[in-house]
Structure formats: C-alpha cells, structure tokens
C-alpha cells in the first residue's frame, strides 16, 4: 500500500506544520554513507527522503531506494532529472514540469514519453511546477535543461510563474536554486510566492544552515529540501530537523 503522501503534505500545510526532506543523489553516497544518513534521518524524524539527481550516471537508484525501504518507514519520493530515473520501489514521484523555463521537452515532451511507464509504476504521482531560481553559480540542472533560471531579484516573475502553475492544476510548487548553489533563494521571493499561491511550497538549493532552513519556513516554505549540505556535513540533518520541526508546536 503506497503512502498517500500528497494528502499528508496538504493537510500539514493547512495545519501550519513544516516538513524536512533529505535529498539523496544515488551517485554521491556510497553504501556506508547511505546507512549513516538513514540512521541520522530516523533519529531526527526526517519527514521525507527525496531521491534523484540532475544527472544520475550509475544504476544504483533501485539499490538506494531498496536500502532505505529496508531500514525505515520514511516515505521515499522520487525527484527525477530524467524519465529513466523511476523505480516502482519508491512511494511517490514528483512529476516535474519546468515552468520557469521555455524548453517544451521539460514542460510536456518528456512527460508524453514517460506517461505509460509512470502510470504502470503504481507510484503516487504528484504534478509539480518546478521553478529554477538563480543561485549565483551555473548548476547541472540549468545546463542539462537548457533553460535560464529566474533572476533572484525578480520576485514578480517568480510569483506570476507560481500562480500560473497553480491555475494550470499543478499540485505543488518547487522553488530550487539548484544543487551546489552558492546562495539560497532570497527570503523576499519565497514570501511573495507563498503569498500568492494556495498549494504547498517546496524550497531547496543553497540551504546550508539550520537558521536558513527555519527562516525559509517562516517566509512561507512548507517543505525544506537539503542535499549537498548534508552530504558534506551529515550532522546538519539533526540540526535542520530540530529547527524546522520547532515551528510545529
């Protein structure tokens, strides 16, 4: 039985509860590091594992998902960089439409190709408006997607893009500065986007401290996603979980 993850996210937003997701790139963690990350996530009561990357070059996706499944009950949500980054062993799939760019392949093209397999996978499908925001450095996702990120000082473009995604029927908005961003998405931009949409807001990229994670939640983010920072310093999982969950009292 798959988790009804979207309902849980939506109900948490209604209740004002904030969530923390640890992003795992299958190419970047060896078995020992993965085991350690899982243990830290269990102890910190992490809400979700997001699994995927802009460019997964190994065949470890299935193994990573299976390992997480064996060790804990934390829901596993696929965050694919391409249609082949899908495994039915996960719980849910972020079905991403890159609404910040103008590449038709990432707005609908790849979805048409992947739709039959996605439907047959049995995964819970969550349609997501994915918005790439300039994080100060070129990122893998901007290069692979052949799109320009939204300038970090263009709050109006970000809010209008998010509103358009919501009105098109997308169920989540994901604002991302990209893996390895030198700076996170500005608080003012998160605030404005959150003000103009009703659906849950996910924020990731460039978040390297517990204080910044909490600040983003206070600005309106419903789920904070951190990958690179916890790869470099796994202890941040505990610190960030405490900071984010402290807002749920």
Structure commentary:
Helix content is 43%, strand content 17%. It has 249 residues and is α/β, with parallel strands linked by helices. The chain has a single domain (5-248), classed as Alpha-Beta Barrel (TIM Barrel), CATH 3.20.20. Strand 2, helix 3 (61-71) and strand 3 form a beta-alpha-beta unit. The model has no long low-confidence stretch (mean pLDDT 94).
Q: State the CATH architecture.
A: Alpha-Beta Barrel
Strand composition percent: 15-25%
List how many beta strands DSSP finds: 8
The shape is globular
CATH-defined fold name: TIM Barrel
Class from helix and strand fractions: alpha/beta
Largest sheet: 8 strands, parallel, barrel
Helix content: 40-55%
CATH level-1 class: Alpha Beta
**What's the number of helices?**
10
Overall domain count: 1
Q: In the CATH hierarchy, what is the superfamily?
A: FMN-linked oxidoreductases
Give average pLDDT, whole number. 94
Order of helices and strands: HEHEHEEHEHHEHEHEHH
Termini gap: 30 Å
Strand order of the largest sheet: 1-2-3-4-5-6-7-8
Question: How would you concisely characterize the structure shown here?
Answer:
By secondary structure, the chain is an alpha/beta fold. The protein is 43% helix and 17% strand.
Question: Top keywords for this entry?
Answer:
single chain; alpha/beta; TIM Barrel; 8-stranded parallel β-barrel; 8 strands; globular
SSE layout:
Elements: H1 5-15, E1 19-24, H2 31-44, E2 48-51, H3 61-71, E3 76-78, E4 92-98, H4 104-121, E5 124-132, H5 140-145, H6 155-167, E6 172-176, H7 187-196, E7 201-204, H8 210-219, E8 223-226, H9 228-232, H10 236-245
